[in-house]
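notes to self, project folder thing:

trying the whole complex as one job this time. last attempt i did each chain seperately and stitching them together was a nightmare. two parts in total, labels are on each line so i dont mix them up again. if this works i'll redo the older ones the same way
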Amino acid sequence: MSAKPSWTYREVPREYVRALNATKLERVFAKPFLASLDGHRDGVNCLAKHPKNLATVLSGACNGEVRIWNLTQRNCIRTIQAHEGFVQGICTRFCGNSFFTVGDDKTVKQWKMDGPGYGEEEEPLHTILGKTVYTGIDHHWKEAVFATCGQQVDIWDEQRTNPICSMTWGFDSISSVKFNPVETFLLGSCASDRNIVLYDMRQATPLKKVILDMRTNTICWNPMEVFIFTAANEDYNLYTFDMCALDTPVMVHMDHVSAVLDVDYSPTGKEFVSASFDKSIRIFPVDKSQSREVYHTKRMQHVICVKWTSNSKYIMCGSDEMNIRLWKANASEKLGVLTSREKAAKDYNQKLKEKFQHYLHIKHIARHRHLPKSIYSQIQEQCIMKEACQRKEVNRIKHSKPGSVPIVSEKKKHIVAVVK
Amino acid sequence: MQVCYMGILHSHFFVASFNSLLALSQQEELVDLPKDYLLSGSEDEGDNDGEREHQKLLEAISSLDGKNRRKLAERSEASLKVSEFNVSSEGSGEKLVLADLLEPVKTSSSLATVKKQLNRVKSKKTVELPLNKEEIERIHREVAFNKTAKVLSKWDPVVLKNRQAEQLVFPLEKEEPAIAPIEHVLSGWKARTPLEQEIFNLLHKNKQPVADPLLTPVEKASLQAMSLEEAKMRRAELQRARALQSYYEAKARREKKIKSKKYHKVVKKGKAKKALKEFEQLRKVNPAAALEELEKIEKARMMERMSLKHQNSGKWAKSKAIMAKYDLEARQAMQEQLAKNKELTQKLQVASESEEEEGGTEEKVEELLVPDVVNEVQMNADGPNPWMLRSCTSDTKEAATQEDPEQLPEPEAHEVSESGGEDRPVAEEEILLREFEERRSLRKRSELSQDAEPAGSQETKDSSSQEVLSELRVLSQKLKENDQSRKQKASSEGTIPQVQREEPATEEEEPLLLQRPERVQTLEELEELGKEECFQNKELPRPVLEGQQSERTPNNRPDAPKEKKKKEQMIDLQNLLTTQSPSVKSLAVPTIEELEDEEERNQRQMIKEAFAGDDVIRDFLKEKREAVEASKPKDVDLTLPGWGEWGGVGLKPSAKKRRRFLIKAPEGPPRKDKNLPNVIINEKRNIHTAAHQVRVLPYPFTHHWQFERTIQTPIGSTWNTQRAFQKLTTPKVVTKPGHIINPIKAEDVGYRSSSRSDLSVIQRNPKRITTRHKKQLKKSSVD
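result (full assembly):
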């Protein structure tokens, strides 16, 4: 007899079967959609999280309406007619007592988070009348400063009606501006002349500019890795950059089949979610070029804005058809309190899935997603197009003098230039 | 005159300071002017055309005349551009240098201050043109970016650490401990009871700080006194000492635990021996100390004598006395003790002379120093182990063999004899080995002797050791026989010495070797063969083979050239004796066809030489056969030995039973490569399992065994302890439910966040460039 008891035999096949079952169960229990918050009368244009309260979410619509929602009760707790025309941007103050909105009516308005008392009228705390339309706003993470963008990037002190500094580089309209959450004096913006510009607020100067193939719609900073940010581009891709080395993106994330409109990082900094014009949202790991998850529903139209909640459990997205949808960040995760055995089983299953993720059968099951026909066919089509391009390139290289046609990597292909 | 002077000066200097200076000095210097003017005129415009010079000369001469002085005030030179402010110099496009103007000043000492000031002016440089706006902005941006990159670079290690972390728990902020620091607690507290006061006094005496550093001044001083390296060294030393101590303790404990009496006896003896040796040493080196030591020993002996330890009256002794009747060991122990007692109780002769005493001690020493192995041998000889006995005797025999009349160098044999002298317990295998070695050495010797002289005489010489070495006798017998047969054979060929030389001793040892197909063993031999063939070609077109030649031992190699001649000779002979056909044809001996031309043949030869060792086709066939065998379905033997019949070691289940329980495997489908002799088709791949396999090595792994290893280590609780299971299944990212995860902060990772707020910085210098910034700017612009 051998020293090994019989029940210890065949660990690998047994664990393999367990992993397979875990993967299948994950797909069985993948029910990510939690709730749809309806109430807006026009497409939802922007979303904002409450910095101190997980349950509160703010949204601005295309008709100038701002709504504050309670996620636990899944209802709207306050409605404000903030602007005329679009609410272009909305952001909360770091203390959570007030929030700012910018609209098409060239105004920046500051509002109290709490509603007006009985008999009081709904009025903003401050209103700043600007000269041009502001297309975005973001608040500083620690101080009473906010930044707006439009013709140029303006830094405002909350107490003043004039910007304390304006920064510009080029003459195109800037679509979005974002403060770095860690080194808070850094700003990033993207303009419609296809470039992403970084600014230093303290030195009141732009730092660097990278020009891409197509327009970047918005950027988002990684909250855990200071110098990393991701740009949502019109060319269906997302680009993760290291701001110290802009000439080559760290990763090109390519799964969408239409323009990417918004991106937001998970607070853990390991993943981000992107909203696209192709009526779906996708979740990408930071270090992978393929998405790990895609969410869509029949009724969800072009997704304009997306946010990952501060406890990294949920995702919200606002779309054209006036709804805000709430999703689980992890599709098959069980909500609520877990017993210790459940937790252990969950961890074990997770590890098994990781361990056997390269096995073809498991990989296939884990990666398979049902997609709407439009997206599916688009993917096929783009696949064919990409293949054709590649073939052509290979042929060109093959039939030209060696070295005359340079081989450009996928990462570098989309970068036009970096301007100092 | 004055106007002219002014005009000239004006035309060249726009420096305000010079103008004012000029105004000051104008009045005083007017007197000297004519002379200066003349001088400057002649010197400055030396290279001008002659006409103008001439004109000037005329003017100067006329000016010497006192009447015409006033006339000179008129401007007479031709100016290109007449202007109030800008009067050009004479040569258009010519530049006037300050040095030229200072020339006349040199001579007069009264103009020293002016000169000094002018020099200062000269040393000042003009300001360069400012860069254009874009350029400046670009430089600003670059500088700012570098600054920012520097700030960001401090996050690199943090980011890297977090990326590689086994587990990250969010939120990252550590929760503030609720316990207040001790100084806060202590501030409002006073010692009341006497005990408390006493403790307080003590603390104060030591100046023990209660607050953060927690080091008394003395401690601090001591810390400062010792450098870091010193402290490290000291600590390492201490650590080593501690480790050594612990080792020693462990060793002592282990030794104490050993139950073997024999071991302890040996140890004790060893100690005694060592002590004696030391004593000897001491006696040589330091007699006085030795005496003291001796006294001590004597004292110990006295103590021993006084005690009743060896009186056969103790409990142990009594029990042994009872046992002694039956037990040999007990008897021996008793006897030992009695002897000891006797020795102790023996009255010592009072030493009259130190020498005697010394001699006595030496005797003792000798007694003790006589290796106990001798006794052991005797004991062994008495003992029941026949192997040991044999080994000893054989060793002695071997030692006897060394007295060979030939006195051949045999290091191994000597070693054997030495070891025989030492007589340590010899294992069976060792004996066998030794015998083998002996045999080998003998063989060698026989070879040598063969080389040296004819075999017949050798026999007589070796006869002295024949009784001992039966093997040798057998060998020599064989040799003789062989030689004789050879002689018979060779007599027909006529090459006696050749054959003798060729004959290796190994042939006798392993007669099986002879039956093997003969093969060329080394490259050299092959070359020789090639040469042979050349000879053959020269002499006779027919390829001749001979098996005897190919077999050769390495020790024959050095005298190859001699052999060649002989070979040639032999070939001739063989050619004559064409009737004799070679029985075995060597595989590797290349055969040559006559018709092949030289080059091709050479080529072939080379290839054959290169691949002489490996037979590719045979290897392949063998491989294929193995693959076929491996792929055949195996019979399943379900026989259980011991069921229904007797079982045990050496018993096999009956053939009937085996037949009954053997499940014959069905004949599989025919192999795909059945009719393809040159192909092996692997049919192992199973398409049903292919889906459950990994096709390519996944990314982070660099070698397949790494991947296999990770897969083979199970992580489930079925195969692991609870602790290990928990450790193996820790998730990479853990988030606390209901907590808001804030972005990473400098304080979270131990960095100091910048004290100045961004707002204050921006308000202090809105769009303005600091002086430091300017400096950087300049530097970068210079670059």
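what i see at first glance: The first strand of chain A starts at residue 33 and ends at 38.
need to look closer tmrw
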